[in-house]
Fold this protein.
Amino acid sequence: MGVVLGRRGAHYQPDQDVSEWISFNLLAYHQQAQTVHARFERSARVWEQSSKFATGSGLDDRIASALHDVAMAGRVRRSRYGASEGLSVQQAQRDLKTLTQREILEPVGRTRARYYVAGERFPENILSTARTPMGLVDPYRL
């Protein structure tokens, strides 16, 4: 970016060729759209895998949101999990305790500062999907 801006100069010149600047901006917008689309697709795959894991493990499907948060963001808090699923404090605590006892999640911290991260038995396929890097394509290069 600095190179493109540097070549343009600091002052407006009405007869200056701005095609390089336009190309730079179009590429940036296109790659941002690719990034958002890939994040959305990855999130959907993680959600699907989390849901399958929950039902296959005999757990309530609602825990998929806790697994999704851990896979995508690295952690989940009881308050966020409870709010996203419309659970009482006790229900959310019970679910997270069950996941902790099964070593799917691991608690970090105490009381109000506590959050949960992936435990020893967190499904590796879910983490792998969440961590898969994406590549960006320059649609303007032939």
In short: DSSP finds six helices and two strands in the chain. The longest helix spans residues 19-56. The chain has a mean pLDDT of 92.
